[in-house]
Amino acid sequence: MHYKKHHKKRNSFIPAFIILVLILLVMVECYLLFYQNQPDSSSQTNSSETSTMTESSPSNTQDIEQTKNFNQEVQPSSDFAEELNQKLEDIQFTGTALIIHNGQIILQKGFGYANVSESRPNTYDATFQIGSIQKAFTASLILKQVQARKLSLDDTLDQFYPTIPDSQKITIRQLLSMTSGLEQKVKPTILMTDDDFIQFSIANATMGLYGKYKYEGVNYSILVGILEQVTGQSYRTLFTQTFIQGLNLSHTCFYDDFIHSSNRTYAYKPASGKDFGTQINDNPLTFDQEVGTGNVGMTVGDLYLFYSDLFEGKIIDQQIMEEVWTPETETKYMGGLYNFATHIKGHGNEAGFESNAMFSKDRKNAVILLSNQYPKNDSHSKLADSIFDLLESDQSE
């Protein structure tokens, strides 16, 4: 009898114990859910300190919001914007224009055709080859290595390629400013890998006038080779990680992807009047020879995001930029850009595509024109200049 009573008490105790354990588990789960969603005071302090130390680095949310602003067409909504729109139409501009005035997008739209045979118009998100503007990206990658102390602007070329003529006196700074005196007159006649082309450029680099400015792409081909030596990574990997992924440039790609892109544009020979010239056929050999110097396709929005982050010190510290853009470089070419007293300009021209970009130094005003047909015996540089002058002179908000 005693055994049976004891057994009965034990049976009633077990369910009660299980219920108690379940209640405790629910309480612990609620506690964790509540406190995981509360901001940690120490984290807030650290975030505040980091924000102060790196003021120019925005949150991911801000980056995403900024990107969204460029993922839409912007038609003119003011008399001033309409005036600029009409100017582009009157000159029969073919391409996509992005115009920023007082920090606001006042125009972002396409003009003319991306593909005449399909009657497909240029749009705000049309992709164009940017040509030599890519050199600013390559320069930025070099300056990131300077910032990381893996390179110095005064390092000489013989540390990397001692067989190049006068390499012992040519510096990284001179390669960036194209004052090395180096030239490359022989070009490949067959398709090559990126690495093979860099080696070809190095083997065919010759010396012209040392210390004198001369626009020669071989300077930047050599910089690509130096980048790969210093980092142990390919140029494409560095470009993709730093810009496409790092800056959320979702409409940026290399030429071999560009030609298969659904929003790509086709280049046309210059023509007089409204008629389009003959379509320029895709030529992989041309762009194969532009490793780091002009084989990337972009939209106006992606290009603006790159320049904006560069000028705001989000890619490279301002201190490094000041070492590069000294008073001596004013009005001169440096790091893929032309540095003037009040503004900075970038320009590219490749196989029928032309790119123009202009920014005021306070970053309030900007013009980006990407075109797949430039004027006969001319370029759109004067057009970009005239629009930018109007932005700078207009005082309306």
TrEMBL record:
The source's superkingdom equals Bacteria
Q: Which UniProt keywords apply?
A: Membrane, Transmembrane, Transmembrane helix
Which Pfam families does this chain map to? Beta-lactamase
Where exactly are the transmembrane stretches of this chain?
A: 12-34
Gene3D superfamilies per the UniProt record, alphabetical:
DD-peptidase/beta-lactamase superfamily (3.40.710.10)
Q: Which ranges are annotated Low complexity under compositional bias?
A: 41-61
Annotated Beta-lactamase-related domain ranges read: 89-390
Which SUPFAM superfamilies does the UniProt record give? Answer: beta-lactamase/transpeptidase-like
Supply the name of the protein.
Beta-lactamase-related domain-containing protein
Region entry Disordered, spans: 39-63
